[in-house]
Amino acid sequence: MDLAELATKLQSGDRRSLARAITLVESARADHRAQALELLQALGQQNQALRIGLSGTPGVGKSTFIESFGLMLTGQGLRVAVLAVDPSSARSGGSILGDKTRMEQLARDPRAFIRPSPSQAQMGGVARRTREAVALCEAAGFDIILIETVGVGQSETVVAELCDLFVLLLAPAGGDELQGVKRGIMEMADLILVNKADGDLKSAAQRTCADYAGALRLLRKRPQDPADYPKAMMVSALEQAGLATAWAEMQSLANWRRQNGHWSTRRGQQAEHWFREELRRGLLAVLDQQPTKSIVADLGLAVAAGDVTPEAAAQQILRLLHKG
Amino acid sequence: MDLAELATKLQSGDRRSLARAITLVESARADHRAQALELLQALGQQNQALRIGLSGTPGVGKSTFIESFGLMLTGQGLRVAVLAVDPSSARSGGSILGDKTRMEQLARDPRAFIRPSPSQAQMGGVARRTREAVALCEAAGFDIILIETVGVGQSETVVAELCDLFVLLLAPAGGDELQGVKRGIMEMADLILVNKADGDLKSAAQRTCADYAGALRLLRKRPQDPADYPKAMMVSALEQAGLATAWAEMQSLANWRRQNGHWSTRRGQQAEHWFREELRRGLLAVLDQQPTKSIVADLGLAVAAGDVTPEAAAQQILRLLHKG
């Protein structure tokens, strides 16, 4: 593969090259990994897209929202990339519903790029893969990157370290179901959107929205944000209602953070976080390499049998590694 | 400190020596750590106590339960140790209510040993400290070790890797509050005890117990246990009712597991888990040592400022370490 050519094409916005580059960063092969690092290095960090984390459990209408919201943005001339962070898809061995068929119109839009979740990914791998895919989308000149998660908790933590804004999508529900959303996820949200505010569900959506607005007021204020954030609002992805207002809110908050220095501070903190994660991963990688892997497995059996204490066995490996 | 003398006294069951030994394993000082490892090595793994993990949120009457249950056991001639695993106590800088004053009678019982939670502990440190304190209590000949947690999730995971039985203590409540207990914690429980089954709360306790018994039936069966476990039962720590039955259930399950080989299999798996944890901790320890710590801090600032990419910075440190 000609990396220089790939980089040039990608930077010109070519979506096939972007797809190929993401496949490269997703690969576990050592030679692919080396090429991926070389590619990322060559691309540098020129553009900054607005990275929006979007969380919501299955059933809240996330695909419909992304389709409607994405088409509104591309209609304004913006280029939109959609990435899925979904460790649970590893179970089914691929993306849950086939991301592109979930968003048919957006997938055909030349200003949009949709990347299905990779199969067989593990959480650690997902974090790295998504971070690098985001960097590639920025290099390809996308204006907005939607990073989608399924609301199970662990993937949200990854996305919080990747995005500039975090949006939580909810469905209308009885007030007692408010506790169904993990507090940790609610605390991450900059904007809560109650979807399906249409037809029979409209009044339920109003109640749910009021409940969450109340719950948000009880959360600790964030010193870095205007006093009226985080906010809860209603939208209807189906009827395309409220989407422009939601987008205005996102832009307003993003601009406020840019002007007050919080944007770059956060990006810096995120980069530092990933530096430390890469460092940890690199230090622990030795455990997956031979001959250490086999020695650890054998000693593990001896520990389980009670022949060696856990501490002594660990010391033995550590001495071996420090000698080598 | 004369470690041989400490070991001998501890093995004779001397509680002051046990307390001193636990203080030693709790210390972060390098010389104390070396002594702690030497002591644990000298003591070996002779005795096996019955290790009971006990989880319950504040307000369920955990202290009263431990006091009543502990006194019943010591009344039968058994020696009982109580250890608290409580990362949240780090916030208040010590044990929440002063563990010994919470269990006044048990604290005065010569057959009991109560260890308050250490202050300023971090989760990783809590895991290691508790595991080593358990080993010390076993070496001191205790028959039962109660490992108490506050039901917030993370500490339960630690305790599950330490105990032979896991008991979840609950208070009577409306059926709709069932969801308040995290599913993950319920899945760990071998026995659910609904406390406060006395006075005005008796009928509420009955309902709660029935609700949880129903919920337990919906959980996946464990191939290694008799078909009627996990169980839900009512107790009243205040009136000392149901405690003997609960204890009979615990013994029955423990004996069943011993006879069917599951006890030793689980202890083996737990030991292997701690071996791998120690190994990870050992490999990452270099990040807390100079000069690496300072270099990482400096590079972290450069990464945050955007002067170096996270990946390149991590590679730089890893190359440095592999050279050294």
UniProtKB/TrEMBL annotation, chains A, B:
GO terms for cellular component: cytoplasm. It comes from the Bacteria. GO terms for molecular function: GTP binding; GTPase activity; kinase activity. Keywords: Kinase, Transferase. InterPro entries: GTPase_ArgK, P-loop_NTPase. Pfam families: MeaB (PF03308). Belongs to the SIMIBI class G3E GTPase family. ArgK/MeaB subfamily. This is ATPase/protein kinase.
